[in-house]
Amino acid sequence: METDRAIVVGGGVAGLSVAIQLAVRDYQVSLFESNDRVGGRANVIEFDGFKFDTGPSLLNYPWVFDELFKAAGTSLSQELELIRVDPAIKFYWPDKETFQPSSDLTRLSEQCRRLDPRDSVGLFNFLRDARRKYNLSFSRLVSSNSDSPLSWLSAAGVGNLRKLGLFRSMDSQLGKHFHSSKIREALGSYGMYLGGSPYDLPGIFSIIPFGELEYGLWLPSGGMYSLIEAMERVAVRIGVDVQTGSPVKSIDSTNGRVAGITLADGSIERAQVVVSNVDVPTTMTRLLHTETGLTSNGYKPPKMTPGVITYYLAVDRELPKLNHHSVFLPEDPKFAYDQLMKQGKVPDDLPFYVSVASNTDHSLAPEGKSAVFLLAPVPLMSQLPEADWERMADDLKSKMFRRMNDHGISIRESDVIKQEAWSPVDWSKEFGLFDGSAFGAAHNLRQIGPFRPRNISSTVSGLFFAGASTTPGTGVPMCVLSGRMAADRVTEWARKELAT
Ligand SMILES: Cc1cc2nc3c(=O)[nH]c(=O)nc-3n(C[C@H](O)[C@H](O)[C@H](O)COP(=O)(O)OP(=O)(O)OC[C@H]3O[C@@H](n4cnc5c(N)ncnc54)[C@H](O)[C@@H]3O)c2cc1C
To answer: Which of 4, 172, 490, 497 is most deeply buried (CB count within 10 A of its CB)?
Structure first.
C-alpha cells in the first residue's frame, strides 16, 4: 500500500481545497466526485444564455483564497478577476422601511442614522467591538485545529471569553450598540444561515455582518462558479487527479484503519489517507464501512441548519430596482425563525432573499434580460416527511412575488421564460446533503469550536473530514480553511504514524 497516496471523496469547496493542500505537501492525490462537475453546492446552471450560481452568490475574505492559490504557486489575482459589489445588500420590511449597508463608512453611517439618529455613534462602537471579536477569532480560534474544550479555551484566553460574546445572544450583542430594531434584525438575519435565530445564537457571530462591511464583497467575473473552475484548474495543474462522474459507494476500513474506497462501479482504490468532503453525517451514516458493513451504529447526527428551496429564473426583462442581493424580512422575525427552526414549519411571514447577479455581471444573462435567484428557507426533510415540495415551491414563489410587488418590484409569471427550482430533496440527492440541510451542521454554542464535529475520525485511523459540517463551519471561505485544516491534521497524523 502506498503511504503517500491520499483520496478525497467529493469535489466541493473543501474537497478541492484539501486536495490542493495535500498535493502541495507531496501527496499523490485522487479526488472522486459523483457529479459530472466539481463544486458541490457552489455549482452552476446554464441555459439559453443565462448562467446561475446554484448556491453562494458573493465572495468574501478574498485573502483566504489568495493564501490557497499562493500555496499552489499562483495567486487569486492571477486566477480570477473580481468585481467589487458595494452596496451589495438591501433589506426590506413589510412597513416599506429599507436599510442598505455599505463598506463606505459615510454611507453606512448615514443609513444607520436614518433609522435611529443615535445609531451612527452605535455603528462605530459596533465596528470597534466586532473588530476585536473578529481579530481574536481569526488569530486564535477559527483557523487552527483544536483537540479539546480546554485547549480551545486556552487558545481563546479565559479572559477573552466574555469579550468574544459567547455568553449573550447575537441579537443582544447587536442591541448593545444599535437602538434601531431594524438594524438589529438586518444584521442578525445572517443567523438563519448558521442554523439558529439571532435570539439564540452566540454573540460572536456578529463578526459575520462585520466581516462583510469591513472587508467587502465581490463577484468573480463570470459568476461564483469561476472560482470553482479556478480551484479545479489549479488542483489539476499541481497534479491532483480529478475524477468526475465517479460516485463513491463506501469508504472502507479494516482493523480500525482506513483501507481506501469502493466506487459505485465496484472498483477499489487503496490509500492510507481518505478525506471525506461529503457532508459529515452523510459520510457517517451512508459511506463508512468496516469488514462487517456500515458502521453508523450509535452515531448521533448533529443539529442541522434548515433546508432551502432555490429558484433559478430566466426573466425576460431588466430589473434595475433590485440590488445584487435583496433580503425581505418579516414583520416579526423572532416568530418566523421560531416557526422555521423550533416548530419545523414554513414561516407564515417568510424571510427570503433575491439575487440578480446579472445586474453586477451583465454576461450572466442575454441583453435586456435578468438571471434571478430566489432563496426561501424551509424545514428539513425529516420535519416535513409528507411534503409536496413541488407544490410548496409554486406557492412560495407566488408569495415571494407578491411580497416584492408590495415594494414596487414586479416580476410576473409571464416574465419568466424558463425556470428551475430545487427543493431540499433535490439538494440532498444531488450533493448528499444530510436531511436536505442547505448549510450543514448548525452553529449553536454546542456545535462550534471544539464541540463541532471533528475533522479527524476518532474510530478509524487515516480518515479525515473537510466541509461545511466540520470545523470551522459553513460558507465558502470557511470551507477553504476547512480543507487546509484537514490537511494539517493529515500531516500531524502522518508524523505520528512515522514515529511509531
Ligand atoms: C443556496 C445556498 C446559498 C449559499 N450562499 C452562500 C454565500 O452566499 N456565501 C457563502 O460563503 N456560502 C454560501 N453557501 C454555503 C456554501 O455553499 C457551502 O458552505 C460550501 O459550498 C460547502 O462546501 P463543502 O466543501 O462542504 O462541499 P459540498 O458543497 O457539500 O460538496 C460535497 C461534494 O461531495 C460530492 N459527493 C457527495 N456524495 C458523494 C459520493 N458518494 N461520492 C463522490 N462524491 C460525492 C457532492 O456531489 C459534492 O460535490 C450557500 C449554500 C447554499 C446551499
So the answer is: 490
